Amino acid sequence: MTVRPLLCVIPARGGSKGLPGKNIRPLAGLPLIAHSIRCAAMSPVIDRTIISTDSEEIAAVARANGGETPFMRPAELASDTAPMLGVLQHALTEAERVDGRRYEALLLLDPTSPGRLPEDISKAEAMLEADAGADGVVGVSRPEFNPLWHCVVEQDGYMAPLIAGAGKFTRRQELPDVFRINATLYLWRRDYLLGVKSSWMDGRLRLLEVPEARAIHIDDADEFARADLMVLHGLVRFPWLENT
Hints:
Spore Coat Polysaccharide Biosynthesis Protein SpsA, Chain A; 2 domains; six-stranded mixed β-sheet; 10 strands
């Protein structure tokens, strides 16, 4: 079951409160959103990339960096409480209307998680193409600690394991692999995404492992500064920066 043509959506609303203006704030010399635009441009499996935004300022920066904004996001999908699912469903249906074509899959690249690479996108596309029973692929990574051993809650004033039964593991080697969703990328089949009523996590989703070192997510000024330093010191390398 083909996943092409593939639509990539980069969502960037203008009302961020944790770090105002973060989507156009410079990271390693480029506006943050430009990293996702350039990554998408280097991917051979993406057929169309659009930016979903309600902000004319963000749209102008995106266009200056090679992005396309064929339509603006409506205000009701740009609030603090607007679910991403609705944003993506709107972007997909509007893109199909404007382009006059049907897309078979949608790739979400969150600009605040710029650590994915073009080869990650290719791997995700190949995974979904090869598994007709899968509804999507989600970027994950292995946390530095295993929550089965290290995550606890308080119950009646005392420590208790977060995950029931975790105490049965007495050796590190016995622990099952645990992954965390890291927001590097999300890929869904068109019909599945448009049919979701509540949570996209209800589907049959494959895991694409991305190294934890590249699982950058930026919500505030400290996280932005750390990401900038990681790129500056070569801890994370972006191929679209190699000739700049």
